[in-house]
Amino acid sequence: MMSLYIGLGVLLLLAAILVLLSLRSRQISQNDIQLHRRAQRDFYRQRQRELRSDLDSGLIDQAQFAELERDLDRQLVTESATEASSTVTRSKRVYVLLVLVLIPLIAVLIYERLGYRQDLALRELQAEIVRDGIDDARWQRYQGLVEDILEQRPDSGEHLVMMAMLYRQQGDFAGALPYYQRLEVLFPQDPDILAQLAQARYLVGNRKVDAQTRSLLERALTINPNQGTALGVLGIDAFAGGRYLEVLAHWQKLLIQLPAGSPEVGVISGGIAEAKRRAVAAGNLRGLEVSVALAPELGAAPSGVLFVVAKSSDGNPMPVAALRVPLLTTQEWPISLLFTDADVIRQGMGLNDFSELSLSAHISRAGTAIRRNGDWVGKPIQIELNTVNEPLSLSITEVQGN
Fold first, then answer.
1. I need a labelling partner for 188 at 20 to 30 A (CA). Which of 24, 128, 208, 313 fits?
2. Mean pLDDT of 363-387
3. Phi, psi torsion values for 38, nearest 5 degrees
């Protein structure tokens, strides 16, 4: 920031020097003009006397005298007009120089008035935090600078987000709430703002989804059906209310978006598994227990996604159902899963609509359901659904393409 002020100071100094030089030049020019005017008047009077003397002595007649006098008058008028034009030009030059001084002065005033000085200080503080880390003093300075900026520019979305995130990172959702509310007014169609406002309301309101919070979440999902925060909050609320099919609908969409190996994968996967078990126990889902093991000779599993796929024997190439499980960094084997109607891909159908299924499992290195060379695969098993009374076992035994 100091370099900015130095630069402005230099500009103002240069402009002031130019104005002073112009004023000095103007003073000199005024003296020259006065001398020139005096000389003009003396010449005009002398020339008039000479013409009058020539007329009296008979060197010129009255008509010639009148013509020469008119020429003398025209010469005086022409020289006076040229002199006035030169004066106007010099005056305009002074005005231009004054404008050059006023522009940086006005810029400085606007800069101060709109709080852009604090923006520079904020950027310097952010660089300091990145370099030296954060402490209470820096947090307070950061908060104070952003609040000062918002006093000058209350509709600055960037700084409203900063304040909301500042309180959010401190776990103070009550403090973040008014900033999210202001952001909603500015950006009513931003699904992330709507979802984060709803989440703040949910946490401040003793983890209850009231009508307004639900409306915000539904608006967010209408704009972006995969908005992760909204899916997460609705899933939590559904779980608390025992609506386990809703939990699966929301969290299975959320799980697909999470990066493999992230801590959130384990939490959401565990929640989905528990919701399935409770839904099956309540008679709301048909479920098949599946255990997926890894052959010891393959060693540690690679990072990727585990797919368990069920296909039918009706000739339709589209799978009946699929489970997608992002693997944890420290994944334990075997993995116990529950295949349910919620995993059925074919629209309007459930597991009871099929008498026989082929189950297979593979680990996709690229995270796709289609097998590729380098993926870890196992042989499929055939099952008759009506005869399944115990957990099913699948094994991953080889690397495709080796």
1. 208
2. 88
3. -65, -40
Q: How many domains does the chain have?
A: 2
**CA 356/CA 341 separation, integer angstroms:** 15
- Cβ burial, residue 68 (10 Å; 0-12/13-18/19+): middle
Sign of CA dihedral 192, 194, 195, 199: positive
DSSP state of 187: -
Most confident of 33-42, 299-308, 344-353, 356-365: 356-365
Q: Which residue has the higher pLDDT, 330 or 234?
A: 234
Domain end marker among 52, 84, 113: 113
Count Cβ neighbours within 10 Å for each residue of 268-298 and write b for 16 or more, e otherwise.
bbebbeebbbebbeeebbbbbbbebebeeee
Instruction: Please give the pLDDT value at position 380.
Output: 92
- On whether residue 256 sits in a domain, the answer given is no
Instruction: Decide if 323 is inside a domain.
Output: yes
Amino acid at 276: K
- Say if strands 356-364 and 376-377 run parallel, antiparallel, or are unpaired: antiparallel
Domain boundary among 73, 91, 113: 113
Quick: pLDDT tens for 25-53.
554 445 555 655 666 666 656 666 766 76
Q: Residue 360 belongs to a domain with what CATH number? A: 2.60.40
First to last CA, the chain: 62
Determine the Cα–Cα distance for residues 390 and 384; give it in Å rounded to an integer: 12
Domain of residue 81: give its range. 2-113
**pLDDT tier at 130 (50, 70, 90 boundaries)?**
confident
List for the chain the helix, strand, coil content (%; round to 5). 65, 10, 25
Q: What is the DSSP string of 281-335?
A: HTTS--EEEEEEEE-GGG-SPPSSEEEEEEE-SSS--S-SEEEEEEPPTT--SSE
Round to whole Å and give the CA distance between 276 and 321.
15
Task: List beta partners, residue 324.
Answer: 307
228 occurs within a structural domain:
no
Residue 363 belongs to some domain of the structure: yes
Q: Is 363 helix (H, G, I), strand (E, B) or coil?
A: strand
